[in-house]
Amino acid sequence: MAQTAEAKTIEEATVTIVSPQGRPDEKTRRYDRQLRLWASSGQAALESARILVISGGATSTSTLKNLVLPGIGEFTILDHLPVTYADAGNNFFLHVNGIGKSRAEEAVSHLAELNDSVKGKADTRDVNAVLENEPEFFLSFTLIIAVNLSPEIEDRLAQALRSGASTPRDTVPLMIVRTAGFYAMIGTQIGEHTVVDAHSETPPSLRLDNAFPALLEYARAIDLDSLDSTDFGHVPWVVLLVKALENWKQKHDGQLPKSYAEKQELKKSLEKMRRRGDEENFDEAVAQAYRMWTPTVVPSETRALLSDPSVTTITSSSPSIFYFLLALSHFVQQHSYLPLVPTLPDMHTTTDTYVELQNLFRAQADREMLVFEDCLKRAVEEVHETWEERESLGLGRAEVKEFIRNAAGVRVFKGKKWGSVEPSEIEASDQKPVTALQNELESGMLPAPAAVYLAFLCSADFYSAHARQPQPTEADNQLLTTYATQRLANGGWNGELPETVTTALGEIARAQGSDIPTTAALTGGLVAQEAIKFLTRQYVPIEGTCIVDLIRSTTGTLPF
Amino acid sequence: MGDISLPAPLPPPTWPNRFQHVDTLLDHPGPSTDPDFVGGEAVKRFLREDSKVLVIGAGGLGCEILTNLALMGFADIHVIDMDTIDISNLNRQFLFRPKDVGKPKAIIAAEFVMSRVPGTKVTPYFGKIQDKPESYYMQFNLVICGLDSVEARRWMNATLVAMVDPDVPESLKPMIDGGTEGFKGQARVILPSITSCYECSLDMLNKQTVFPICTIANTPRLPEHCIEWASVLEWPKVFPDKKLDTDDPEHIQWLFTHASTRAREFKIEGVTWSLTQGVVKNIIPAIASTNAVIAASCCTEAFKLMTNCAPRLDNYFMLIGTEGVYSYTFQHERRPECPVCGGETIDMPVKKEWTLERLIEALEERQDIQAKKPSLSVNGRSLYLQAPPQLERATRPNLEKKLVDLVNDGDELTVTAGSLPFNLTLRVLLKD
Ligand SMILES: [Zn+2]
């Protein structure tokens, strides 16, 4: 990772928390290592989160540990069971002294020790009873994590969250987690989810294929031949590329080089501009030469997003990000590129030249920001709000700048249901793993998540039928095989069970639904990462179902 | 798993059903388990009574590793860490509390794990891994590294590879290594002399940004250049007798003030306290969740290696959590010319016209070698020695000389450096 990219993040991370002169306060020092990732905006989102975790087993507490430490606002553990001897053995947040006491209360007290600024609550009711009598209870949380519940309760919970949401946008995100021995599964139900900052590692485009007028003028004004060797060696690569490309365009009807041969020719002409052959600025220019022929475009994901109905038909109740996206679509219609992000990488040149160049980029970015604000004004007026109220709509200057900086990384996920809810979808639910399994077998690649997913489904079938976990016996293996054959047949599979499936069934039977500490810790880490992404709306969260297979030491994500 | 009908709790170290969950994996083999695996009491006894493992590092990964090992039933755990607890550790190092700030990590972590998981024995050592002789490392079944230092890992790796005696199977100590950065991380299993080793993959590391001195001194452009100017050039000039302590807030304050002044002078924006600290301490972002994933992966592998209840990771697991849950498991291959486990000499093509100094620069730039301030000799004759001062002075004139006047084509140079935990043999190939 380049120091410059990292440095920018560091600066952004703390500039709003710490006054430039002052030393960081205690809280900033405590959270320093995470603020360098998600900045104060992400931290504020975490601190206002209210998280519900259902059941207080090892995977639950392992997950919560990773959320309490970075400082979520509040968490609740819902669990009516007492601490058992087995619990005290596999769960770091339960102790053998607490045998027989409430598992929720014991776990909360041990977790709360990790961070004084986090509030923990124990709720000792049975999740079944709450679903029955007070389903609205679940709607008061920012995120719910359901661990090792029966599929029936998972489905009811998912249903309660869907029917309790007035719009898909308001659906409380749900994470469904199951563990068994070396296996784990992480599923999600989300409503509409917006990523405001994907933290893409692709640096913003400098648009050198088509330099903005002020930059072009600046480059033209530099007469390379008249420079002494010191100045010649300090012409920044950005200028060298603009000059080389302009020459090319003059000879080629204003066209960019297209074929490989043409690109090599342009690169050679750049090399020919050298005087000695070892100028550092030219070394850099050659390394960056691709920027000359990489056309500046609106990324396809952004383009698709801008034509989405959630963007084109905003209402006055739409969150501010949709106003920005509508404005962006107006902007893109005019310009076919995104507003300029004035992040100039370091380059071999003098201080003055670098600062000068940086100012050129900043001035251009400011000009484009004003154009963008015009587009934003139009968007605001389209939904009959007044531009004077921009601040209260969350559309102030600071937010505009923030949006432009992250515009290429904005994503909107349309959401995903959990469980087989509609009768018409029941068949489809068996179809999906079959398709995934087929793909898996055809590619012959590791990992094999579909087989393990199927094993989790069959284990649940077994539990529903027998009210116990399958055991590693001949009889139980036979039953699991029957369920698997049935499910695959429903999904249109004909033929023998593939070996990946029989292996996964064997492991599921061996595991007997156990929640072993290392699998719990690993799963808890992954679930917490995703929870943080959902809460902060930063980084790109999982789309689909994640399968952890620690026998093969792999994870894989299924697209459903 | 219901067992609450049992009578009053038994005193530690153990109690019924304590390992009910873990035992599912030790009582029966799975379809992928090695046919030699025999489930039951013997393997449990070995794990819970006879095994002995070493954990290097009691920080972000170390806290997680110690906890996992204790819960999985490892009997005898040792931990080495030379650091004391800082407030910025508390966002992830969950065995520490604000009252522990300033105390040794290894000791506090060991005490906490022993109090929470009764019957576990954790022996801390507050110091450096280099303090311990080979005989110390020989007592363990395996070593798990949860370090943030490349240098310490290289040392541990080279030590464990050197310990392998083909006639003594127990001399082969698996090394499991974890590392994280933000939402990303990796875990790997190294079987010294069998799989690729840490040194084999040195070129996979991100190249650390090094700012040329001339940029720092003459043409600063980034806020980082101003900070480096303050720490690398100004500090030693102003305080010739005081070593810069990047943990001392007064020192950071001084750097921050001076870097800010220089930045203003050059019209450079963006020097902040946080950036100053980030640059001089080379801070890597770190969060609990990623550490949990990587540490758990390491401990899963330790458990599998120790019990043989499932096949081991062969040999590299990489997690990228920034876009969905993406991971990649692959076999990293041995590098035949690896200076630690390969034994073949490394070829170094050089130009005849190069000076010795140019060769040293080229050597320092090589990502697969990473030698800082190397000393060189050929056939027992010193070409350049970095220390002691009198020998440095004596060999300094060679720096200006052309290679063609110092060595013959194909000569094998011996390279030593503080960052190299071994002597490197380099074959120079003189080219026109
Ligand atoms: Zn090696």
From TrEMBL, chain A:
Residues 31-538 form the THIF-type NAD/FAD binding fold domain. The keyword RNA-binding does not apply. One of its GO terms (cellular component) is cytoplasm. GO terms for molecular function: NEDD8 activating enzyme activity. Pathway: Protein modification; protein neddylation. Regulatory subunit of the dimeric UBA3-ULA1 E1 enzyme. This is NEDD8-activating enzyme E1 regulatory subunit. It comes from Dacryopinax primogenitus (strain DJM 731).
Automatic annotation (TrEMBL), chain B:
Signal peptide: none annotated. Gene3D superfamilies: NAD(P)-binding Rossmann-like Domain, Ubiquitin activating enzymes (Uba3). Chain: B, domain 2, Ubiquitin-like 2 activating enzyme e1b. Chain: B, domain 3. The keyword Nucleotide-binding applies. GO terms for cellular component: cytoplasm; nucleus. It holds the Pfam family E2_bind. The active site is at C214 (glycyl thioester intermediate). Keywords: ATP-binding, Ligase, Nucleotide-binding, Ubl conjugation pathway. Residues 348-431 form the E2 binding domain. One of its GO terms (molecular function) is ATP binding. Its EC number is 6.2.1.64. It catalyses: ATP + [NEDD8 protein] + [E1 NEDD8-activating enzyme]-L-cysteine = AMP + diphosphate + [E1 NEDD8-activating enzyme]-S-[NEDD8 protein]-yl-L-cysteine. Pathway: Protein modification; protein neddylation. SMART domains: E2_bind (SM01181). It is an enzyme of class 6 (ligase). GO terms for biological process: protein neddylation. Catalytic subunit of the dimeric E1 enzyme, which activates NEDD8. Belongs to the ubiquitin-activating E1 family. UBA3 subfamily. This is NEDD8-activating enzyme E1 catalytic subunit. It comes from Dacryopinax primogenitus (strain DJM 731).
